[in-house]
Amino acid sequence: MERIEPNKLTEIFFETISKEWMLIAAGDKDKFNMMTANWGGIGYLWNKPVVYVFVRPERYTFEFTEKQDYFTISFLGNENKEIHAVCGSKSGRNIDKVAETGLIPHFTELGNVTFEQSRLTLECKKLYSDVIKEENFIDQDIFEKWYTIKGNPHIMYVAEIVNAWI
User: Fold this and answer.
1) Whole-angstrom Cα distance, residue 47 to residue 8?
2) Roughly how many angstroms between the first and final C-alpha of the chain, as a whole number?
3) What are the Cα distances from residue 120, in Å, to 53, 115, 142?
4) Could you give the domains of the chain?
5) How far apart are CA 133 and CA 14, in angstroms?
6) 131-166 pLDDT per residue, tens
7) Measured in whole angstroms, how far is the alpha carbon of residue 115 from the centre of its chain?
8) Closest to 46 in 3D by CA, of 136, 165, 126
9) Is 0.85 surpassed by the pTM of this model?
C-alpha cells in the first residue's frame, strides 16, 4: 500500500460510498470486526479532512468502534461485492468473517486493521459521536422510514482522516 495525503484524494465519494460501499473496521490484532456500510461521507470540518459514518448499536462492529480511538474505512472495489454481502448480513459474533470472505488483514503502524484487498483505505481518528435523535428530524418521514420499524437509531461518528493508502 502506498501512503497518500488525504487532501490528494480524487475519489468521487458520493459515487464510491453509495455504489461501491465500504467496510468499517475497528479493533486490534487480537480481536476486530468489520461491517459493510453505504451511509456516510467525506468532507472538511474543524479545519481537518473528515469522514462521517453511521453504525447501529446492535452491530458487533459498534462494540469495537466504541472501545477504540480509531477505525478504518476500506474500499474494496466493485469486484468484491460478495465480501460486502457477508460483512453486511452476517455478524462477527456468529462467524469468522475473515475465514468466510477470504479477507487478508493488514495492520497499520497505529495498529488498526485494514485488508490487503482494499484499493483505498482511510485511517480515521474519532473526534465526535452522537445518537441520531427523533426530535432533531425536520422531515419526520425519514425517521419513520428508517428507524420506527428497521431498528435502533445509528450512532454518527465524525473522524479525522489521519492516513490514506492506495
Assistant:
1) 16
2) 6
3) 16, 10, 31
4) 3-165 (2.30.110.10)
5) 24
6) 999 999 999 999 999 998 777 899 999 999 999 999
7) 13
8) 126
9) yes
